[in-house]
Write a structure and sequence with these properties.
heterodimer; A: 430 residues; alpha+beta; Aldehyde Oxidoreductase, domain 3; Aldehyde Oxidoreductase, domain 4; 2 domains; 7-stranded mixed β-sheet; 5-stranded mixed β-sheet; 12 helices; B: 340 residues; 4-stranded mixed β-sheet; 26% strand; elongated
Chain lengths: 430, 340
């Protein structure tokens, strides 16, 4: 069911819902996703994943894999022509693990073969000698003195601070203060389409990569140096994407497929299984949030204090922006005169944290909205009225002192929900 | 026993990147000799329908039906770099870039048409394949003729458009500053039934009030709201990677649970429109605002139903069952003095 409350004048096609340009080919099943694309002479790729959460690599023996009939290439870090470093914001990920693995999501070797079955068998024949290292698997362990380091840098990658007003005075003015700790979990993006890409070198020597991506241009920035080509010799083309939700912001299949295509001179397709898609690549960051907020008996918020710890896994991806954004949004859509927020971006040997629909703001909303509910009920004010009292209105400031403009619609959405509740005779149970 | 409860969740969300990260849209639009248009745009359609929305913008500015517009997208070999599809930015940033590109190509059309008609370009409008004098619509020339004349004179009917919403980073010590050019806003209402014997939560109602600024494509907004709410419901109740010593124990769909149609009620999509001065036609991004409020609304509804607060997500039956038993023990403890 859909209802539009609008006073806007008709303007051309704005406000209309024509059939989607891709609707027909999708509902008839004619659309071709990267995982279904084929080319003459195309090879199939498979990845050997790390067997440890944290370990040194002593040796990699690919001879048995290479000897398997139907195998065209087996590549390790030694075969990466470029710097063997990529990342959306910080170049901290290896195309293929070099001397160390930092998570089960690290790729150690890649294979191109005549079929997926042969490629899989070749992957199983690669022998890697590891020396396991102690890992860090909780935020507390990662920040403990003397904790094993995930990367060369400290496990605390970033600390950000939001300061507004006077936090002590804010709590002194409060008639009710609520303080709790919230723990949110790791979530998978679960796009219907697992990661997939097809790479080939054309007659002009251009490496073409057809891939399910959210940003071909940033992919190209990361692919070109690692495969040792100029950027204008790499062409990245988005294939129809079966959902991204932030995961396909990062490099997925592109560099691996590209390296194998360059090595073999044949088209190479790399398609993740659902199981690979589940443990590899980025996930929603788990947060630990200590949150304290106070309000006066008239319902006005006086202060919010929060410490937000985000588990970024072994690599940053966009983690420092995700967690910093959570800090900026820690008050929720409310006017709070006194704010003190600290965020901590922590590296561990867990799954890789990255961009996911909500980008840190979903996790912090679990905390601020639970707190708003408790404050409202503690003060004897309905949860909707309490939010209406405190919500940002044009001219008020956010936690960062930003004056919000005439487009501030939070009050309108709350009023719409209040109307809906009364229209449908919905009442609180307690 | 099954107990019913209601909960609300509200949120705001900074659209785009912030933190001085480049946040730019770019597009070009070409009108061919037969009067059809091609839009070259670098953002990705991830299934949310941005291609169609951008075509609507071109059609609106050039007075063309959707059927006359083709979209070429997201190819480093042919389209401009328009930034990624993320941060709920595609409509807000790229929508404005496409509008600017459409206005640019329209200006070129009107310049030539004005010369052909002897009318000032500012006094022209375009609709149904005809460039017309605004105050004398009987004076008109077809777009096909105008483009043909441009080609004869060695010109091309191509327009470029940009939009830059890059913001300065906030202060490193206090985070004070204008973090985002604009924000999305949303509130959702959830109704749940909690089985006090098993701890199982069934969501029986989800109502989403989302501020779209201006819903350029209302069915597209509805799609975002439905998908977003299902994702938020999954986060509240089911979808969890259980990670032990760095390894996901939820390594297949047998263990990693996603909502099915049996778990999701009809989602009611109430679109609120508070126009933003910086968005195309007032529009804002809705993708993330559609998913963020759902989880807290469900958690608050669980409290309203049975009086327990889930502070460690997700709200699995086991967790709620344990919280209900704790609640029983606590109320027993409170009553114990009279027993003694």
């Amino acid at each position: 069911m859909i209802t539009v409350d609008t006073k806007a004048a008709e303007q051309g096609l704005i406000g209309t819902s024509p059939p989607r340009l891709d609707a027909w080919e999708k509902v008839t099943g004619r659309v071709v996703y990267a995982g279904d694309m084929t080319m003459p002479g195309m090879l199939h790729a498979k990845i050997l994943w790390s067997a440890h959460a944290h370990a040194l690599i002593r040796s990699i023996d690919t001879s048995a894999a290479r000897a398997l009939p139907g195998v065209h290439a087996v590549l390790t870090h030694a075969d990466v022509p470029g710097p063997n470093r990529y990342g959306v914001a910080v170049l901290d990920q290896r195309v293929l693990a070099q001397d160390k693995v930092r998570s089960f999501a690290d790729a150690v070797a890649i294979v191109a073969a005549d079929s997926e079955e042969i490629a899989r068998e070749a992957v199983e024949r690669i022998v890697v000698e590891y020396e396991p290292l102690p890992g860090v698997f909780t935020i507390e362990d990662a920040l403990a003195p003397g904790a094993p380091r995930v990367n060369d840098a400290d496990n605390l990658f970033q600390h950000t601070t939001v300061r507004k007003g006077n936090i002590a005075e804010g709590f002194a003015q409060a008639d009710l203060i609520i303080e709790h700790t919230y723990r949110t979990h790791s979530m998978d993006h679960m796009p219907m389409e697992p990661e997939a890409g097809l790479a080939y070198v054309d007659s002009m020597g251009v490496l073409n990569i057809l891939t399910a991506t959210q940003y071909p241009f940033r992919d190209r920035r990361q692919i070109a140096p690692n495969v040792g080509l100029a950027m204008n010799k790499v062409r990245v083309v988005m294939t129809p994407v079966g959902g991204g939700f932030g995961r396909k912001d990062d490099i997925t299949t592109e560099i691996h497929a590209g390296l194998l295509a360059l090595k073999t001179g044949r088209p190479v397709r790399l398609v993740y299984t659902r199981e690979e898609s589940l443990f590899a690549l980025t996930k929603r960051h788990p947060f630990t949030i200590h949150y304290k907020s106070g309000a006066r008996s008239d319902g006005r918020l006086t202060a919010v204090e929060a410490s937000i710890y985000g588990d970024s896994g072994p690599y940053l991806s966009l983690g420092m922006y995700v967690i910093k954004k959570a800090g900026i949004h820690a008050t929720g859509p409310y006017y709070v005169p006194n704010v003190k927020v600290d965020t901590y971006t922590v590296t561990t040997n867990n799954l890789i944290g990255g961009a996911m629909r909500g980008f840190g703001v979903l996790q912090i909303a679990v905390a601020h909205e639970s707190q708003m509910d408790m404050l409202a009920r503690g003060l004897g004010i309905s949860p909707v009225e309490f939010r209406l009292i405190n919500c940002l209105k044009p001219g008020l400031t956010t936690a960062t002192g930003q004056v919000v403009n005439e487009g501030t619609g939070i009050g309108a959405t709350l009023l719409r929900i209040r109307d809906y509740m009364s229209q449908h005779g919905l009442e609180w149970s307690r | 026993m099954k107990k019913r409860g209601l909960g609300v969740g509200s949120m705001f969300y900074g659209i785009g990147y912030g933190f001085n990260r480049p946040d730019i849209g770019a597009a070009h639009v070409e009108v061919a000799e037969d009067g059809t248009a091609t839009l070259f745009t670098g953002v990705c359609d991830l299934g949310q329908g941005i291609q169609t929305l951008l075509a609507q913008i071109v059609g609106t500015e050039l007075g063309m039906p959707i059927s006359a517009i083709r979209v070429v997208d997201a190819d480093t070999g042919s389209t401009p770099d328009s930034g990624p599809t993320s941060g709920s930015r595609a409509t807000f940033v790229q929508g404005q870039a496409v509008r600017n590109a459409s206005l640019d190509v329209k200006a070129r059309l009107f310049e030539m048409a004005g010369r052909m008609m002897g009318v000032a370009p500012d006094d022209l409008e375009v609709a149904d394949g005809q460039v017309r004098a605004r105050l004398a619509p009987e004076r008109h020339v077809s777009v096909v003729k105008v483009v043909d004349e441009m080609h004869k004179q060695g010109k091309r009917c191509i327009g470029w458009g940009w939009q830059d919403i890059t913001t300065k980073d906030v202060d490193p010590l206090t985070s004070q500053g204008d973090a985002y050019q604009t924000f999305g806003w949303a509130t959702q209402l959830a109704e749940v039934e909690v089985d006090t014997d098993t701890g199982f939560v069934q969501v029986t109602r989800l109502v989403s009030a989302t501020d779209a600024g201006r819903a350029i494509n209302p069915v597209g907004v509805e799609g975002q709201v439905q998908g977003g709410a299902v994702m938020g419901l999954g986060y509240a109740l089911y979808e969890q990677h259980v990670v032990e010593q760095g390894r996901a124990r939820t390594g297949s769909l047998a263990f990693y649970l996603v909502p099915t149609p049996l778990d999701v009620p009809e989602i009611e999509c109430l679109i609120v429109e508070v126009p933003d001065p910086n968005g195309p036609y007032g529009a804002k991004g809705v993708s993330e605002p559609a998913t963020i409020p759902t989880t807290p609304a469900i958690l608050n509804a669980i409290y309203d139903a049975v009086g327990v607060r889930v502070r460690t997500t997700p709200a699995t039956p086991e967790r709620i069952f344990d919280l209900l038993r704790e609640q029983d023990t606590q109320s027993a403890t409170v009553e114990s003095p009279s027993v003694g």
